[in-house]
Design brief:
mainly alpha; elongated
Length: about 70
Amino acid sequence: MRSTRFLQSGDSFWVKAGGVTRRLFEIFEEEREEHERTYDETDMRDFMDVFIRECRRANDRGDTGGGRGRGTT
């Protein structure tokens, strides 16, 4: 029964982990928005610029992501 009490606790590991995960997604979104505003196709500054470039290329191809990891283009 100890594991049941752990899962019912409002201060559990999973609650804390969820908060941390949410915050990481918020940070990622803030960074992505800033990079979108300052994006220059000829100047890949970091991973985020490459990510944006690849998302735009996939969008231009009409790629919905269904072929990820399967070797399709």
